[in-house]
Write a structure and sequence with these properties.
heterodimer, A: 185 residues, mainly alpha, Rna Polymerase Sigma Factor, Chain: A, Arc Repressor Mutant, subunit A, 2 domains, globular, B: 242 residues, alpha+beta, Immunoglobulin-like, 3 domains, 5-stranded antiparallel sheet, 4-stranded antiparallel sheet, 20% strand
């Protein structure tokens, strides 16, 4: 897969997770927190749009990492693993809030950020991904970014975009496959 | 299709991995997939592949420093957790030390209880002290021990009736006829136990007669309130006959 080079700070993560899993090393945990907390806070805030809730969830995330670091077997990207855990926690929280009627956000303010997200001026490493994203149809690209970056569930997208659920699911599925094929070239 | 064969299907693994990484799964489905990843390499590989493909989307997000309270709280929570994760013997050492000390004390107490009665079981000598009229009133027994501070004299009334046990009496030992009695101690209650230092025990070994006076003036056999001979007891032959 034609992926950008891994940044140096990401290379540090896997050994840190190993030290946490095997030695319960608080210093390794502190270092991991220093390297990743602001980025993961940004990720969660993007999904939850609530700073207090994101901070609380960030704490939950790192406790999960502390206890479950052993589940990361050193294969693949440690940063990717952290992002998936953070996303899953944020998505669960977001969906609870939606069910309880505590999130009434509008998609429209996000439209601007989507443009920035796929800007060709992005730093070199991400260009491949953005080039592939730009190859997608705008509607599909929007669905993927709203779903993946902002954590909108398929049901939420159905309501907000007034499209059939089946269409949304198949569009996202096709878009992701297309994106993957492009990245593999 | 059995589980293992099912998850060897690349397109199925790919579809599941895409849904997992994109966050399009219920928490229960997600947990099941995470469990499957531990034993299905094809699925785990597909998840890794998708994870790495989409992660640059997250890297572009602006970092937002979290409030300081977050790390403070995490640090506070993981410190006790670190204690709990220490090996058992390291976690419980204060309790283990306390348990060892308690056990040691209990063993010493048991040993002391076991040894002490054996030493006091049989007296080394006995002296029945009588009134002038010949009636035995007081029994003095001597228990010798090789350990310093363990030799004792025990004075016991033979009959409590009519005895003024509050009165203080003085016990003396007389080595031989005409010798001056040597003061041994005060008898102050119904049963009195006197600890005998080693140098005093040498006197007791030679004592032929015990005298009791009502004051601290040296008595004679005639002026003493009670008097009686000291009888050595030889226990070895008796004990061996049982």
């Amino acid at each position: 897969m034609n992926l950008p080079e891994t940044p140096n700070w990401q290379l540090e993560l896997s050994p840190l997770l190993k030290r946490i899993a095997q030695q319960r090393d608080v210093q390794a945990m502190e270092r991991l927190y220093g390297l990743t907390s602001a980025r993961l806070m940004g990720l969660m805030l993007r999904i939850l749009q609530d700073e207090g809730a994101s901070a609380d969830l960030l704490q939950e995330l790192y406790l999960k990492v502390w206890y479950q670091a052993g589940q990361f077997y050193g294969q693949g990207s440690a940063w990717g693993w952290l992002c998936v855990i953070a996303r899953n926690l944020a998505l669960d929280s977001r969906r609870r809030k939606v069910r309880e009627g505590r999130i009434f956000d509008d998609i429209s303010p996000l439209e601007d950020s989507l443009v920035a997200d796929i800007s060709p001026e992005s730093s070199g490493g991400e260009r491949v991904l953005y080039r592939c994203l730009r190859h997608l149809k705008p509607g599909v690209r929007r669905l993927i970014v709203l779903s993946y970056v902002h954590g909108f569930s398929h049901h939420e997208l159905q309501t907000r975009l007034a499209q059939p659920l089946g269409t949304i699911k198949s569009s996202i599925r096709r878009g992701l496959m297309e994106l993957k094929r492009c990245l593999e070239q | 299709m059995s589980g293992t064969v099912r998850y060897q299907d690349k397109s199925l693994c790919d579809a599941l991995a895409a849904r997992y990484v994109a966050g399009d799964m219920t928490p229960a489905c997600r947990r099941r997939l995470e469990a499957l990843c531990c034993r299905e390499p094809c699925l785990a590989s597909a998840v890794r592949c998708w994870m790495e493909a989409l992660v640059p989307l997250q890297e572009e997000l602006p970092p937002i420093p979290p409030p300081a309270r977050v790390w403070a709280s995490i640090n506070h929570r993981i410190q006790p957790a670190r204690q709990a994760s220490l090996p058992f013997w390291q976690r419980v050492w204060p309790w283990r030390l306390a348990a060892v000390m308690t056990t040691g004390c209990a063993l010493l107490l048991a040993l002391w209880i076991y040894v002490r009665p054996a030493q006091e079981a049989l007296p080394t000598f006995i002296a029945p002290l009588r009134y002038q009229n010949g009636e035995v009133v007081l029994i003095v027994s001597g228990f010798q021990s090789e350990q310093v501070g363990w030799s004792r004299l025990v004075a016991q009334w033979s009959d409590m009736d009519g005895q003024d046990t509050t009165r203080m009496l003085y016990l003396w030992g007389q080595i031989g006829e005409g010798e001056s009695p040597q003061f041994l101690g005060r008898i102050v209650s119904s049963d009195t136990e006197l600890s005998v230092p080693p140098e005093r025990w040498h006197v007791l070994k030679e004592t032929k007669r015990f005298l009791v006076s009502v004051d601290n003036r040296q008595p004679t056999p005639d002026t003493a309130l009670y008097r009686g001979p000291c009888r050595r007891l030889y226990t070895d032959s008796i004990a061996s006959s049982f």
